[in-house]
Write a structure and sequence with these properties.
Layout (H helix, E strand, L loop, with lengths): L13 H10 L2 E8 L2 E8 L9 E5 L2 H16 L6
Antiparallel strand pairs: 1-2, 2-3
Amino acid sequence: MSDDTGGIDRNSTAEDVRDAFARVGMDLTTDADAGTWSARVLPVEGGDRESQLTGEGASEDEAARAAWQRYVVLQQGIGTS
């Protein structure tokens, strides 16, 4: 069965999302400003991804999931092997 979200869902924590990004060679950082959380994703050193992804939310978890969702959309689904 294919998993087009890489195992990340609405119950996933920021740490879950951080781990998922690490598996694809990317690094998730989060920061709060005036009650809004933002997530930023960059390739880790030596990673092969060039795009920068961002997400925002009312919590760290929401911001991380928003960045992951954007990644999934840009990749047209993840799938599992």
